[in-house]
RNA sequence: GCCCCCAUCGUCCAGCGGCCCAGGACGCCGCUCUUUCAAGGCGGUAACGGGGAUUCGAAUUCCCCUGGGGGCACCA
């Protein structure tokens, strides 16, 4: 039977995560590439939740994954399809395979298998299954069941020959069947396993291209042989993406910092930037552009230009991309994006007017939204304003600070309260101070940190009264110290 | 242990037999701009893992080694 997909040549891809945790950047990249491919070819992008393992799956994780995809801007056209609701489909396929002798009941427990391999004459052999129940007679099976044993279902893999498939980005991949043991397709409790559900669903959903991580490359042979046993429909094209490693080229983990998409979000990264960076990890446009939005990437995306080697996640480069994106937003867009984070950080103390103005001066220097907010702490800290040790060192490390601050207070007390009026350069140099030398100390008094928003803009936003108070507080502290 | 995939600057990529004593980006280092720190501008540092083979000619093709990653679950 020809499928609609085959008839029209329509591309249908799916992102199929297991809801056993929030969306990991590696999975996000896989989702992204599926999305890009679908959009590039006017195809359909489907979300399928692979939750056949009851013990590891949780609804809240499925929701978290959907949220993360939405945040990234990867909207799907179909789904989510939950495999846990399609158990009957898998069971029917499994029964058929059993009936046809392509699969068999296995009564071995994990402990049985482990025990046998431990006493094997050839220790350290392949950790897989040894085929113990492969040719059990009906009598044996009857005895096992009578003894109360439950059976899992194993697929009988070929003993000889080679399994091969052509990977869209790696070319032909081949492996000897002898290295692939009979594998379980239905658990003893009746629930299907990944291989089965995967084969059945890709068939049922008429998936044309399977784009996933390279960690699944070896499982392809199993899914393919299973699929062929279930139906004669031509298999989809497989494309295995290079994995994303940590900066040290080891498996990317929490140890390397943020790994869940949600963490990047709360750390102040823009979805455009994360998607942009992820697209560049393993792919690049012909002209070498770096900063691109999703549509621009879609316009040029192709599996043939995907890299083969695993890539190390580079936080520095992500930071740069994020900064570029922050600068690309209009002030209004930036404000809309950062507002939730700002409310969480400053609450009632946030003054919308001042906030917007501060945003304007901070936009051109920010790396992340959170970092941008941190630069505004001095504006909305209220009574909790304090000077960091690092900043205080700038104060005490400046020659004649007291005299400098006296000049500062004098000027701030009766200058015009505008960017120009608040300019301390003239009064300072007229008093004989080197502006560049003395600036850090003044900066520290006002903003409490060694770096951040430009001083004169900051003074204007802070207001004359508070500004003078802060300098005065430092003068008192210095007097008390001396 | 066995199997699979991969291999260009510190990192991400370009390169698909001559245009390459290898190009771009991040980082890093200078310089510049400058009211702190950034951002910006300019410049610099830095790589084809090793050995064979094919060829008039290899970063580019083939083989071996080495190295890195992944897999070998009643996880996906």
Structure description:
With 482 residues, the protein is mainly alpha-helical. The protein folds into four domains: 1-82 and 242-328, Rossmann fold (3-Layer(aba) Sandwich); 89-186, Glutamyl-tRNA Synthetase, domain 3 (Alpha-Beta Complex); 331-380; 385-479, Arc Repressor Mutant, subunit A. The protein contains 22 helices and twelve strands. It has helices spanning 4-8, 25-40, 59-72, 87-99, 110-118, 138-146, 194-204, 220-230, 261-266, 271-280, 294-300, 315-328, 331-346, 352-362, 369-374, 377-380, 389-396, 401-414, 425-430, 435-447, 455-462, 464-481; strands spanning 12-15, 44-49, 78-82, 103-106, 152-155, 162-167, 171-176, 183-186, 209-213, 237-241, 244-245, 311-312. Strands 1-2-3 form a three-stranded parallel β-sheet. Strands 4-5-8 form a three-stranded antiparallel β-sheet. A hairpin with a 3-residue loop joins strand 6 and strand 7 (171-176). Helix 7 crosses helix 8 (220-230) and helix 10 packs across helix 12 (315-328). The protein is elongated, with a radius of gyration of 31 Å. The protein starts with a helix and ends with a helix. The model is unreliable at 1-7 (pLDDT under 50). It binds one RNA strand of 76 nucleotides through strand 5, strand 7, strand 8, helix 7 and strand 12.
Name of the CATH architecture of the largest domain = 3-Layer(aba) Sandwich
Number of strands: 12
Q: Name the helicity range.
A: 40-55%
Average pLDDT works out at 92
**Corresponding CATH superfamily of the largest domain:** HUPs
